[in-house]
Write a structure and sequence with these properties.
The protein is of the alpha/beta class. The protein is about 40% helix and about 15% strand. The chain has 21 helices and 21 strands. β2 and β3 form a beta hairpin. The structure holds threonylcarbamoyladenylate and magnesium ion (MG).
């Protein structure tokens, strides 16, 4: 959430007929002319609008949303002619396209004129322009007599608001006015196409479909980040691609298979997901609490419901949600793009196994639990072992550690002097953060590669990681579990096992407080101390997983 406190008085304007409610439209327009930012309805999603030529007004949009300043805004116009005052040139192909689809859910990107500030363009040489069809937004733009810069009216990173209730929840106290125009007809943001490239490139699919674009333009490139994660190190053609968007708080995973296959999968692993996002009419076919998002054969209905369904899942307290991928055709491409991004492009195939992450403080008996799970057929990834391997002689991580902490941490024989590194890396918060920033991404990516490979073979994987949450490894797990024992018991265990002093043991504990705090959010707990029976506890956490894993033996 943006740091700004929600103390502003927010006026609500309910507009059902912009023609008869002319005086209210004028009031809203005068707020905009005065340099205020106002939430307005469009046919796609609600937006936060401000005079695109007023720097201070535009700054208010970013403040209300908590949006990164390099993410550019779309400029909204009421008449096609206005496009000419914003961009350097309007090619024939753009004319053809806007003639057909404006007003409507289509945004075109073209080289900008100087009147567009860096704030609006996100320091790019181009600007995004669209003419909405919603009568209320058009009336407001016309009355303001100036193009309005407007991003979606959600808090940055959260689902775009598609109803007045959403925008009221998100923006009350952050803006001086919200215009209530009812539910948005389409429910996903406009199609964004760039003409700054030699061949026009579709950057964001929406209700104007890829098929419709190619019909007018001939060849259109489909940006790879629409259906796949942005490649590491690649620059985003559209800065919005970099940011996790559209996402509910719950972890979402996309199942790529038929309804029958999903049923089988959930029977095999009934304890991994706590909610299902499914098509209308299917809600009683699964044993999980369900939220629906439109009909399977009607992508328009899916688009209209999608963001609303994300909010519903959050309201229900969903933590781990599975959803079956809809068709990627037509408007479905836009639906899939939002859904896949919300899921962080995390897909499950019918034959995939599951990944369970296990954390636990020193002495909790995490290794014992993992050993038992291994006997039951789980494939164990030891994250600690992996962490040592990434700093093997000659490895790129070792080289970077040398650059960061001094070349002398690499011994003459080329191996890492762990003690010397520890003395430097654990001396203060910044050094520790630097160490983590070098090692954690590598550990996560190696764990992920191995885990994915094994699950593709149908195996169930345990990631045994004392820093499951603090390293970010929990994000690749379908479920997380904390092995727990009270401090006194853990202390006894490690005093006996490791032959260290009480002080040394307590020091070790103090280094794990951050992880222990984060681990309180784990999906399950295995109590590993008397009077609990460890086998029963394990069974409680993943009975089906064990059943499946045993079959693999
Ligand atoms: O339907 C919509 O387009 C809604 C309503 C309110 O009109 N607006 C909207 O705006 O979705 P926003 O800011 O949430 O999304 C605009 C997207 C962002 O991903 C941004 O990075 C991209 O368009 N974009 C804007 N200007 C761009 C440019 N010059 N080059 C590349 N991408 C651009
Ligand atoms: Mg947005």
């Amino acid at each position: 959430m943006p740091p700004q406190n929600k103390t502003m008085k927010t006026e609500i304007y309910t507009i059902t007929d912009p023609v008869s409610q002319k005086s209210e439209i004028e009031e809203i327009a005068s707020l905009l002319k005065k340099g205020e930012a106002v939430a307005i309805p469009t046919e796609t999603v609600y937006g936060i609008a401000a005079d695109c030529f007023n720097e201070e007004a535009v700054a208010k949009i970013f403040e209300a949303k908590g949006r990164p300043s390099d993410n550019p805004l779309i400029v909204h116009i009421a008449k096609t002619e206005e496009l000419y005052s914003l961009v350097k040139e309007v090619p024939e192909s753009v004319k053809k396209l806007t003639d057909k689809y404006w007003p409507g859910p289509l945004t075109v990107i073209l080289p900008k004129k100087d009147c567009i500030s860096d704030r609006v363009s996100g320091y790019l040489p181009t600007v995004a322009v669209r003419m909405p069809s919603h009568p209320v937004s058009r009336a407001i733009i016309e009355a303001a007599r100036v193009p309005l810069a407007a991003p979606s009216a959600n808090i940055s990173g959260f689902p775009s608001p598609t109803s007045f209730t959403h925008v009221k929840d998100d923006m009350t106290g952050r803006l001086p006015a919200i215009v209530d125009g009812g539910d948005c007809e389409l429910g996903i943001e406009s199609t964004v196409i760039s003409f700054a490239t030699e061949i026009p490139t579709l950057l964001r699919p929406g209700a104007v479909t890829y098929e419709q674009l190619t019909e007018v333009l001939g060849e259109v490139k489909l940006h790879s980040a629409i259906l796949n994660p942005l490649e590491k190190g690649a620059t985003a053609a559209s800065p919005g691609m970099k940011y996790k968007h559209y996402s509910p708080t719950a972890r979402l995973r996309v199942f790529k298979g038929t309804k029958e296959e999903l049923k089988e999968y959930l029977e095999k692993y009934p304890d991994i997901f706590d909610h299902i996002l499914c098509f209308e009419g299917e809600e009683d076919e699964f044993s999980l609490p369900a939220v629906t998002f439109g009909k399977e054969d009607d992508p328009f209905s899916q688009a209209k419901r999608l963001f609303d369904s994300f909010r519903e899942l959050d309201d229900m307290g969903a933590k781990r949600v599975i959803v079956r991928a809809p068709s990627e055709n037509g408007v479905g491409l836009g639906v899939c793009n939002r859904l896949y991004r919300a899921a962080g492009f995390s897909f499950i195939l019918p034959t995939d196994g599951i990944i369970i992450g296990i954390t636990g403080e020193s002495g909790s008996g995490k290794s014992t639990v993992c050993k038992k799970l291994e006997e039951k057929g789980f494939y164990i990834i030891d994250a600690d072992k992996l962490a040592r391997e990434i700093t093997d002689k000659g490895s790129p991580v070792l080289k970077r550690l040398g650059e960061a902490f001094g070349e002398d941490i690499i011994s003459p024989d080329g191996t890492l002097d762990r003690r010397l590194l520890a003395s430097r890396a654990f001396k203060d918060f910044e050094s520790k953060a630097l160490l983590d920033s070098i090692t954690h991404p590598e550990i996560v990516s190696r764990c992920e590669n191995t885990a994915k490979m094994k699950t593709k073979e149908g195996k169930c994987v345990i990631i045994d990681a004392p820093l499951l949450f603090t390293s970010g490894l929990h994000l690749i797990c379908h479920k997380t579990v904390r092995v727990f024992a009270p401090e006194e018991i853990r202390l006894q265990r490690i005093l006996e096992r490791d032959k260290i002093t009480r002080e040394e043991a307590l020091l070790r504990f103090s280094k794990q407080t951050e992880e222990a705090k984060a681990a309180e959010k784990a999906d399950g707990i295995i109590n590993n101390y008397p009077p609990f029976d460890i086998d029963e506890e394990i069974n409680k956490i993943c009975p089906s997983g064990i059943r499946i894993a045993s079959q693999l033996n």
